[in-house]
Amino acid sequence: MSAPLPLTVPPPLPGLARGAEREGLDFEALRSAGIAALQQLCGERWTDFNAHDPGVTTLEQLVYSLTDLAYRTGFDMADYLTGPDGTIDYAGLALHPPEAVLPPAALTVDDYRRLLYGALPDLADIWIHASGAGLLAVDVMAVPELAHEPPAAAPQALRQRVRALYAAHRALGEDLLCVREVRPRPYYLRGEIDTCGERDPAEVLAQIVHDCGEYLSSGMAARRMRDVIAQGHAPEQLYDGPATQHGHVVARPAVADLVTVSELIGVIQRIDGVRRIRALAILDEHLQPCHAIARASADGSCPVLPFPDDDAKLELLRVAPEQGIEYGVSEQLVPPRPAWHVANRLLYDEARLELAKLRFEQRAFRGDAGQDGARYPLPQGRYRELRAYYSVQHEFPAVYGIGKYGLSESAAPARQVQARQLQGFLYPMEQLMANYLQNLQDLRTLFATDDRDPRTYFAQYLEGAALPGMAELYRDGDVPGRVHRALARHDDYHERKGRVYDYLLALHGDAFPQTALRRFNQYHPYTTAAWLLDAKRRLLEAQVALSAGRGRGGDYTLAPDASGAVAPLAWRVAILLGCDGGERSRSLLPALDGRPVTLLEHEEDAAPPPAAPDWLPVPPPRGAAPVPGVEPERLLPDSGVPEGLLRDGALLSSYRLAQDGGDYLLYVQAGAQWRLLGRYGRRADAIASAHAAIARLAAVNRQCEGLHLVEHILLRPVDPAREPSFNAAFYQARLSVVLPRWTLRCADHAFRNFVEDTVRENCPAHLQPAFLWLAPGAMARFEALQDAWRAALRAYHTAADADMTALAGPLHDASGALVAFLREYRTEPT
């Protein structure tokens, strides 16, 4: 059998016509290239390359088959990824829609404004101010109702929702200082406006109040997602910023701090139905004229344009159809005041209903969760039976006797043997082409992120109609199995699958750069390639969470063991270090089957080692996986396990066998001490027990490896005056990374340097991490303090406003205790 096809596309054959649409479909170019290659290889031995020559006939049939292969290679990529059910498993192929992978985490003030405005329909306006030291202050104003302008949402409930949403999307090393409710500052319009056309004056009046009120806002506007997509915006433009839940939120161009009458005139003139603006002025809340409206105010107020609610305000703005006269010129045509007052009140009553309709439509639009379905359509393919192979032998002239009908029964035996010889000659080339088609069919299996099929080369068994007459040429036995085994000799699954994962990571602009991780494979000495491949797969499957959220902090309003409570930085670093888990917070203290394991930091006396000449080696397990065995009874006693035993006991080189009469003694070396683990009647039992002990201790070591990430900004005191030694620099742009020092890898200073370099490379550049390598006792103390602090932090930030004062004391005490611990063990980075 021929060598399998490589992943890369081979270079074009020499002599192919460059003008062809696709060189693989150009029969004449392929034929010419084949003859040129034959002339070069055969020299003077074969000079007849005319069409009647059997060799040329064979070449032409093979070239014709190659054009079929090239044709099947030219379909749209979606066709190759479509399954028999007509769908594409995008998640299983690590191919995510634009709305999942393109929106980044919120970084700037505008990002947070867009995020909060798009997620909270009850939010009329929002302002965010950077207070320094990584703290943000948020001012919010709820959407008012129409009647007496009370907020549509309770102020306390709105502030809680803002705090919860910010906590879920906050950047690493940042926090929310406060959320304040902005007081509305009313203004009114006075003037006379003529309308025209068929639009009702009440609709025009309502539109004037609505649009002018929107213009006074801070500059946020929401648009329907489907409308933005229909306008032809590319995904990278639409998702240039954090994802918003309700519509596409844009910030209007920068505007001046003061809104003048001329600007409001421009807004009104753009309204359909407005004919002429005869006069327009701005009045403050005391109905006194003012030249302009200040958008922002130091007293915590925001300008609004409420709907008039009393008789005096109903007469300020007159909106009526144009009468062809100027008011004040012909007083005889002006209606009497009582009649006009009644008409104007009716107009305003109708306008109130129209304005309520406008605000209802806007609120319904902003609260419509169904907009999430308005997305860019994903490619849809057509399932094709690409593996179906039609033998080239059917295309040969019938005189060759290798087609569907073969030779006649009267053919001489020698002639039949010649036909079988030709079939055997063509078989390797046909098997290669059939395997090529099978690889096309299984392309989605090759790029899948699961490992259910441990192959990257695929083959099919040719017999029957696919290759007539071949059953008589096959040797007896498992022919399909021999085909696959022959191909498997060239299939380095972990290397090739790793290159596939590298390609998929590159599609997302990511990579797995941890080539140095091979040095620290103490727990996977026989399965290093599979271990690294699994780390790549985990990084690939977590792209949605780790790509956009790389600079995001953990959500402290969730339970500590919830997936969103862990900062993506900690999760990513755990994957890059080859640690188990990482997506959830867990204790790093050793445990076995759910029960804690006590680690002894000081070695105890142990049995003396046997004499060196009596030692027998412990061979490695057969194959990649350890041989199942019985764990020694003295391995993990309840009285405690020395740290040295936990570390060195995970290495095969630490075990020795000694003979004592007819028994075998199993020893393990932990540091400078030796420990007798058991006595066995058979050597095989002692070896199996050693392998079982290694597997168990390696699992305990892996369970202990991980990291805790503490953001100092979250430890700041609620009231700095209560902390006598308050040091603001300790809380600004600082992280503490807490790790165990007792495991096999973490005790290695080279691995510690590797861990610290990995954290620094993936940490945001403005944050300064420090590392605490703790002993088991110190780690237990830290985790207890951290659990108490997290519980107090969560209770404080999820409480109602009235309860936050009472919860500030417990939070202050829990934070202070953890700060004292970090200052005790923290080593400042150089």
Automatic annotation (TrEMBL):
Residues 607-623 have a biased composition (Pro residues). Residues 604-639 are annotated as: Disordered. This is Uncharacterized protein. It comes from Pseudoduganella armeniaca.
